[in-house]
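Throughout our pipeline, every protein is held as a single compact record rather than as scattered files. Nothing more is needed to write down the fold, since each code stands for a local backbone conformation. For reference, a complete record is included directly beneath this paragraph.
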Amino acid sequence: MSAMDMQGAAERADDMLDLTLGAIEPAVRWAHGPTTTGSCDVTRRRTVMTVVAPERRQEFLDRVESFWRERDYRIKAVNTDEEFPAVYAQAEGFGISVSVRGGGQVFFEVDSPCVRESKVAASASKPNGPSYEGVYPLPRPDVESPYWSEGAS
């Protein structure tokens, strides 16, 4: 990691998020959450804009966890709370998580290890829906999916 700088860490975090979101079938819409930096670390975030019905949330997290296990990510914790489930993993010194929070919205987050300080550019990954650039906080999920949203009120 000593050769990696914060920009490289941000790009690796984007790769991890791109691969994870790309593995979810049927696909969900997502938008970028805020990027934050510390003195030597970077956090990248993605917010799922697809409505994931309460009956589908655990399945959604199970699919993500399975994908991470297939890629040899180390699962550090699983929260099976009915309302706010989450999965926390680690790979290559990066922490990655998926969690359901208020309003049933699903969030992904990747935290880098400590790396060399550098400037961090915005993510080059393009959201597969509206970008909501400059909007914070992002709106609640508003994209209906015949599969993931089934049964949502």
